[in-house]
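Typical record was shown:
=====
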Amino acid sequence: MTIAVYLDESHFRQFLIFNIIKRLKLHRRPVVFASIFTISAIICFLMYRVEGALLLGTVLLVSGLGMPLVYFASFFVSLKKQVRLQNLNPPRLVYTLEFSEESDMLEISNGKERATYRWQDVLHAYCEKGSIYLFITKERAFLLPGNLLADTNRVWKIISAKLPVGDFSKHG
C-alpha cells in the first residue's frame, strides 16, 4: 500500500490540537490553576465581612481566569504561526508511506530522503476523526489525513494489527 500524503493547513492544525490537548494533555495545568484560584476567590467572597476579603477575592478571580485565558490565547496564536510556517496552502506532498500487510517494515520517503522503520519500533498510533497519526518517537509523527485514504478502517486495521497490543488508540 502506498499513500502519498498531501498535507493542508486544516489537517496540520487538527493534528497539533490533538497532540497538545488530547495526547500530551497540556491543558490540564491551566485548568487546575484556574480551578484553585476560582475556588479561593469564592471562599474570599463568602467571607465578605472580613476586611480585604472582597479585594483579595477579586484579585484571585481575575488572576485565576486571566492566566489560563492568556495561555490558551498564546497557544492558538502559536498554532496559527506554526501552520503558516509549514507553507501548506495550497496542500503539498510532504512524504509518501509504503507498507503492506505481509511486511514488517514501513518505508517513508520525502523525495530527498528515505527511511525504513520496523513496525515494532513505532511508538504509538492513533486514529482520530478519520485521520491516522503514527508516532515513531514522542516528538516525531507521520500524519495520514482521512481524506487521502480510500478506506480508513482498512488502513487502521492493517496498522493496528502490526503494532503490539496497547500501542494504538482509536478515538472519535
User: Anything to note?
Assistant: The radius of gyration is 22 Å. Residues 53-85 form the longest helix (33 residues). Residues 125 and 168 are 5 Å apart (CA to CA). The mean pLDDT is 91.
